[in-house]
Write a structure and sequence with these properties.
By secondary structure, the chain is of the alpha+beta class. The protein folds into 2 domains: about 45 residues; about 160 residues, Muramoyl-pentapeptide Carboxypeptidase, domain 2. It is built from 8 helices and 6 strands, in the order αββαβααβαβαβαα. The strands form 2 sheets. The protein has a 4-stranded antiparallel β-sheet with strand order 3-4-6-5. It has a two-stranded antiparallel sheet with strand order 1-2. The longest helix has about 40 residues. The radius of gyration is 21 Å and the shape is globular. The chain starts with a helix and ends in a 14-residue tail after the last helix.
Length: about 260
């Protein structure tokens, strides 16, 4: 009996060592990738001689993972989303399935309980959400114009929502499912804000970037951009708008080979 217990303990120790070794390898690999990417981005070899004089084509936003969608940049009319179901009921772009599932799995391994409360939305669903928010403000006595302006701070105008891309998810702590700023104090959000970049996600609407994103702080809205880009965004303290502008200004093209799916 003692021999059997001893063998089980040995197996557990070996498994623990393997898991920790893998995590260390993954973290080191990601750190090296970020260091290389940052070095490439900050090298001072972009001189007037090698900068193309003509207007830089917006090829950066044709990379599927970096497509910029906001009030000034609506979703292309023929944009096509191939979705897949995760967590039994939510749909996301098939290309981010593995990343979001791994992030949620690792969070749960830490004893946390994250749940998705919104993911891909059809244009029709987004329109209903927006109209309902307008009605809510109108019931409070606001005019149509003011109601629309206030609604746009909380619910993105149809055709300009990242949820329509299938690249964004809203995640909350099961113990606190209210979508307000207190969400940031939950253990789930604390973990996600620190580790989401390791899986290719960014906190899309930070509290200190409202003047740029034109969207109120949402400590539950995560957007997939890819691990390399997410880590650079974190290092530089950018929001997505600032990052895209940075790429354009320096004439840096993303290495993503896949393009937006347009029929």
């Amino acid at each position: 009996m003692k021999r059997k217990i001893y063998e089980i303990l040995i197996i557990i120790i070996i498994i623990f060592i393997i898991i920790n070794t893998y995590n260390l390898y993954r973290n080191n690999k990601q750190r090296k990738e970020v260091e290389v990417a940052l070095q490439q981005f900050t090298e001072e070899n972009i001189t007037k001689e090698n900068v193309v004089e003509e207007k830089v084509i917006d090829s950066y936003i044709t990379d599927w993972n970096l497509i910029l969608v906001n009030k000034q940049n609506p979703i292309p009319e023929q944009y096509n989303v191939q979705t897949v179901t995760i967590e039994e009921k939510w749909k996301v772009d098939v290309r981010i399935k593995e990343a979001i599932e791994q992030m949620l799995l690792d969070a749960r391994k830490q004893g946390l309980d994250p749940i998705i409360c919104s993911a891909y939305r059809t244009p029709e669903y987004q329109k209903n959400l927006f109209n309902n928010k307008i009605k809510e403000y109108k019931r409070k006595g606001y005019s149509q114009q003011v109601a629309e302006e206030k609604a746009a701070l909380w619910v993105t105008i149809p055709g300009t929502s990242e949820h329509e891309l299938g690249l964004s998810v809203d995640i909350v702590d099961r113990k606190y499912q209210i979508l307000d700023e207190k969400q940031e104090t939950t253990q789930v959000q604390k973990w996600l804000m620190e580790h989401c970049y390791e899986y290719g996600f960014i906190l899309r609407y930070p509290t200190d970037k409202k003047e740029i994103t034109k969207i109120n702080y949402e400590p539950w809205h995560y957007r997939y951009v890819g691990i390399k880009d997410a880590m650079i965004i974190k290092e530089k303290g950018y929001c997505l708008e600032e990052y895209i502008e940075f790429l354009k200004e320096n004439n840096i093209k993303n290495n993503t080979e896949e393009q937006i799916q347009i029929k």
